[in-house]
Each structure stands twice: as C-alpha cells, then as structure tokens.
Amino acid sequence: MFLFLGTDNQSEWEYGTIAQNITDNKGYSFYYFDDGKLTHEIKEDSNPSPSAYMAPGYVFLLVAIKYISSPLLENYIIFGFNIIFFIATMLYLFKITNRFFGVRVSLIALIIYSVVPEFIYTSYSIGTTQIYHLFLALIIYYFLESENKYVLPAIFGVAILFRFELFLLLLIIATLTLIKKQYSKTVLLLIIPSLFLTPWIIRNYQEFNQFIPFSTTGGLNLYRGNNEIMIGGWHNFNTLEKLNKFNGDTSKIEIFLDKMYRK
Q: How many angstroms separate the CA atoms of 181 and 56, rounded?
C-alpha cells in the first residue's frame, strides 16, 4: 500500500474537517457561510456552525491523531490504523469462514480479501470503510460464537458511533434473538448500544433543540437516491436555489438542509 499508492494529499473528507475544527477550538462544527456561499473549507477566521453531519467515532480518532502527531506523520498513523483494522478483519474473516467451510476455503477468502484492488484501496482511503468491515466481521463472529451476552452489545455500541447504519443490523439481530426467545440478550442488545448513543443524543438536543439520534444526513441520503437530474448527485438547480435563499439561523443550517432534501 505504501509502496504503490503513497501517502500524500489524502482527503480526510468531512471527518477531517470536523476534527480540525475541534482541534482549533471551534467545537464539533462543519458548515458556515462565506460571502453568501455555503462552505466547509478550513480557514483560520471561519466560524462554523454546530454539526451532527458525521458520526463521532472516526472524527475523535482523527482528533486524537492530530493532537499527538505532526501533519507529516498524520497520514502514516492513519494508514497504520487502517492496516491494523485490515489484518484484524482478515483474522475474523478466517475464523468465520473456517467455521462453515474449513481451512482451504478460509485461505481462499483471505487471498481474495488481500489482493482485490477495491479492498486494498479501502484500507488506503481515509474514512470509516475499513473499520466498518472490521465491525461487520466482529458482529458476525460474536453473534455466532460468543457465550458472553455483553460482548456483542458492547461491540454494537462502539460500532454505531462509527457507522450509524449499523443500528439497522442491530435491530435485525435483536429481532432474531427475540424470535429465539432469548429475552435477556434482546434487552441487552437494545439497552447497551443506546447507552453508548446517549451522550451524542443529549449533545445534539443541546445544540439544535430537537431530537437527533443519529445524523443530519438522512435527508441527503434519500435525496441522492432520488435526484431527478442524476441519481447519486449532490445537487440540482432547485436545491441550490433554495439554499441561496436561506436567511435563517446559521447555527441550524444542517437542520434546514435535512428538511430541504427530505422535501
């Protein structure tokens, strides 16, 4: 990965912007208006609005890296974490596959995972995709294997703070345990991850004065799947026109965007 792909000029996307704002003492923030244009570029004199745009798990991992390292080392440390996540995913992929199909098939699975370009790029990209793979492998493994009824809920609690959509998988597994009449497991699967989410929910209520259990990108995701001009596209002329007419409380810009996209 280091040899063929390099380590320079890697975008940290929204995660890195929010992490940088935190280290610059601007709080968990993202969007702001600059000369009437909505932006999230990192500027020394910017005053970005409070954000619930991205899940906090990976953001705070980047914050920790920014505090302990220099810009020169930052990418190496991030990629180092990704390699650790990659190797751990391979370990649990082997264990899961071996449980059903034996060692030979497990080794084939590892070869596929380690040489297919998209998986190599996944560990090269700064973001949650690689750790998402690891959490999925951990969830599957401990759902199948663990006798300790606290392990899987704790994994879900941490995982959801990195990728909110894992809450849907949590509901599916909780439903399975309920069907199996494993009532104590079902209760723990619902309560423990909720406790992990509680500080985030309280913080969002304090900032936005409304209940936001996950993020403010739900409307955007729905819109991108139904963009009349280009499926997957971020904007069309209608949304840009509405955005340019925004004259409300800038601290609530993400709430405005979410409602606009949903509509």
A: 34
